[in-house]
Write a structure and sequence with these properties.
Largest sheet: 8 strands, mixed
Number of strands: 31
Radius of gyration: 24 Å
Shape: globular
Distance between the termini: 39 Å
Amino acid sequence: MKKALTVAGAVALAAGAATSVIPTSAAAQPSAARKVVARSVASPGKVIGSPSASAASTFIVTLQPRNAAGLQSFVRAVSDPSSASYRKFITPGQYAARYSATSAEVAQVTAWLRSQGLKPGKVSPTRTFITVSGSTSAVQKAFATKIHSYKTGARTFTAPATSVTVPANLAGSIAGVVGLDQSRLLHTTNVRPDTTSKKATPNLKSLGATTSAKSGTSDACSAYYGQYTLPYIPAGKAPLNKKLPGSMCGYTPQQMQAARGINKVKSTGKGMKVGITLWCNDPRIFNDTNTWAGDLGYQKLKSSQYQVLAPAGGYNSDYCDNTDSGGVNVEQALDVQSIHGAAPDANIVYSAAAAPLDDSLLTALHALVDGNKVDVITDSWGGSETNDAATNDAYSSVFMQAAAQGIPVLFSSGDEGDNTNGNQKVTPPSPDYPAANPWVTAVGGTSLGTSNVSGSKVGWEQGWNTERSILSNDTWGSWTYRYGGGGGTSNYHAQPYYQQGVVPTRFAGVDPHRVYPDLAGAADPYTGYLIGYHDGSTASGDFTLSKIGGTSWSSPWTAGTLALAGKRLGFLNPKIYGAGHAGLTDIAGNQLTHGFELKANFVNKTTGAIYQALTTVSVNSQNLEDQTLTSDTGYDNLTGFGVPTSTKAFLAALLK
């Protein structure tokens, strides 16, 4: 049975009271005079020693909110169309006055930190956390813990070997400590198809793309599904058993707008601001976006439309470099160009974290929310779900604050399905986080097949779940899992109020927990979205156009779509799970009827040389796998309640 874990100050999402429980091993139980504020490291790897006593670290101390039950009630009311408080959002100042720690409590915690030899820094504007730095010896003394150094693979990190605790007299003021445990490295959620060239393709013509509506046999990439098939190929792998379309070029923003009916909506996002959180920053993204727009004949981004919020302490050089921004510049380009593609006149605020670690990303989220700087936030990153209450409650806190201020927070649902690699007998399913948090809107993935050059005709749309088979010696190999939209059930968060009586028990469980995603959008990299960026691994960093996919595409595209509403919409999930399901189109059926035959790139494991092989790629591949995700009528754990196929209907439903 799954256990719902909460801490004092956390909000119960189902019937029953919140309890203050953070599991620790028997040997690590604190004395009765101390409160656990963070657990010991869960997956430490190999112990390689301890950091020096003088080694410095930076982390955040989260503060206990006031009136947590009142906050939950307010967020529910302000998100409920039947409530008198519906969409009567509050400001950060009002939030702090009602729900944050008092100035006296902040002073108490700050004084104690100083007394322990630690250096409290900036207090967040809404008094929700304090940035703290200090030596290993001071940290160990203050929190009665031991900090060890660990190694997993090539990576080394530090983390608490025992529970992190504070004196009992601070239990009502300190909620948790986040950042001492650096074992959980977050990652982006974008994927590339096997056909991505290793040579720079600086413009659309160099991709081999054509605007011709003619179909036939060609090595060129296709402007729509089925335009071309490769010459001289056998029938694809069973059960497809037919010659399949070749590789697509990747959708342009104009094609995606046509496919989703954005051209039928008058708004262009003017006056709205969309926020992004990620770590590092590529200073070339603005210029790259305009090079991309110019090549595709699309509206360019004005300098006044793009803002970067840098972390106060600078970037962590272990993760952020000066060549391709620590490897996340592709994600940054995808986020920016997806938002701009859906809402060309919306402003974009990029809140950069110092590193792919929880405390850094929480700080980046607060920069947007505490400053009330944006009208919607998209996040295309995550990691495995943790049962550390301090971390989870810190995320819930900022997401609920955003909801109180009317800011929808979207998260990509992940690109590895249920994380079983297509075989749950070998690898148990596990959720992605923060996508599984109940206070965010998780965006899953679909495969979208258009049937004309403009994109205005959609031939089909199914759940994104990809298998592939490689031709060798004229024989198709076994199907193997490639990737797919993320989904599943939280092990930590109980079923939220809006899913009760709506999400089937087969997904939520007998002891019901939060299920995600909530909705979905185009994400399949084999159809893909064309973006432009500088890639350190491509032709010595030259600008390139490339198709890319993943729920890192569906989330920012959805955020751009929300900007077309012209006003803040608040927490979306009560609308999605309510009557009409926010105008979404249900994606149902697990039938395997579509796929591709293409020349995929592979790397010889012995020589490192790149070679090509004919590959069958399947779409909507649930029946080829032993995994837990499915595409059913109504709600399902692969596409949620469906896709905003009609932007006009989607916005009309949300604006009611």
